[in-house]
Amino acid sequence: NSSTNHYHAALLCPPGMGHIIPFLELAKHLVSHTIITKVTLFIASINNKSSKPQVETNILQSSMKQGFFDIIHLPPIDVPTNANMGTKLAIIMKESIPFICHEISTMTSPKPTILITELFGSLVLPIAEHFNMSKFVFWPSSAWNVALSLHTPTLDKVVEGEFTDQEEFIQIPGCNPISPCDLFSPFLDRNDQLYHEYLPMCEELRKVDGIFVNTFLELEAKTILALRSGKIYKVPIYPIGPLIREAKKQNCDDENRDYVIDWLDKQEEESVIYVSLGSGYTMSHEQIKEMALGLELSGKKFVWSLRPPSTKAGNDRYLTAGEDAGSNGVPKTRASVSAFPDEFHKIQNRGLVIMDWAPQLEILKHSSIGVFVSHCGWNSILESVSCGVPIVGWPLFADQLMNAETMAKEIGIGIRLNVAQSTKVVGSEEIGKTIWKIMDKEDIEGCAMRKRVKELKHIAEKIWSQDGPSFCEMTNAFVKMSHTNGV
Ligand code: UDP
Questions:
Q1: Ligand 1 pocket, 380 CB below 6 A?
Q2: How is residue 120 annotated by DSSP?
Q3: How far, in Å, is the centroid of ligand 1 from the Cα of 289?
Q4: Looking at the DSSP assignment, which residues form a beta bridge with residue 12?
Q5: Cα 3 → chain centroid
Q6: Is the ipTM of this complex over 0.85?
Q7: Is the model more confident about 1 or about 290?
Q8: What is the mean pLDDT of the chain?
Q9: How many angstroms does the Cα of residue 275 sit away from the middle of ligand 1?
Q10: Which of 251, 257, 279, 323 should be mutated for ligand 1, with most atoms under 8 A from CB?
Q11: Contacts of 405 (CB under 8 A, 6+ apart)
């Protein structure tokens, strides 16, 4: 079919590095795919009255220099500062609709025929009908998460009372049941604005031509098969993961990067802990204290990507993550440590602390890294898998709790830390002993996790080769689309 050579895909990405990074990867993979001839990436943004995060600018500029695809920055949108992150994202995406429509209608040939966005952009999907485009969702998180969202309109009808008050686990046909404690924010209060924004997004998700999920069969076989059985809802599912960046010298300040890598070069193989709780999370003093004591108890060396502490832990910086990056992290590290608790100062000499954007992939890829203490953002899990590094999971909010469960129970490449119910903080002993267990060459469970993650690394290496499984899934999606919609 000669028309299959002329697809122009328009991608719509919400703000936040956790979204932008996988969307850039999706864009690159689409461009390299013979079926797609042109890709335009729209990036929505928040009006936070300060300049764009330096790291975002660096990453986008480097993609643009390579001339892979067009990037269109949508005008920044004002959001109420006190709204939660999900509500902010929903507002930004909805209010970006007129700008997207304007851009698409003024595009010259080839006009976009495919619209791909994320769950928060799904409220934008109805415009696809107006422009006669096929519509897809790209899911930069787990398949289990897709299953929950697809099943939500049904749960809404059958579950009585608050989801979090349920005594039984939440059942999804064919999938592992979900503990009510692990549900993400929209499920916490059915009367909250966020739940009322999330529910219609799930309805839109049921109407798409396909969902691209950043996962692969060997990670989530049971869930992927359940999704494909149509028992949850009949929507085509395409596992196209892992889409992760190449570990290249492009994403952070060079001096900072060289300092970290030189230090890692001097360490023994698989002897160092890498700690990062994500791109935009600020730890409380209490959390930093326990983490520092836990690292001390582990007796190992470490690299810790850490933002200055706050009296209140939280994700306020999520949509603007990386704002403080771009400067040389090392002197800055020395300059700002006075804000940290005493426990932190004690262990400083046993490791490196990076207080701006860490070259995470390069660190994980380094042979001296033995374990990743992670918040279990899905990108971080995929990156760890691709580098063959086992995980100690300290999930904090959003999809991270379910991701940590998937990582530990379904994928089997690490351990999820127990959070003390009274303080909501993970204790230092728990941190120290779990790190020790995973890194201990004699520990049977630790050995099994290390072996499993290395096997997955080898599978992931070949998955995007020509005719590899994820490459073929993408082809199938567009072939099916052309048969169904005749576009
Ligand atoms: N990241 C990084 N350096 C940092 C913090 C984060 O390179 O200092 C990258 C990380 O490699 C990943 C992304 O930012 O690609 C974070 O995505 P993830 O889904 O793991 O977590 P989020 O930050 O969205 O919670």
A1: yes
A2: G
A3: 22
A4: 42, 117
A5: 34
A6: yes
A7: 290
A8: 88
A9: 12
A10: 279
A11: 176, 178, 179, 182, 416
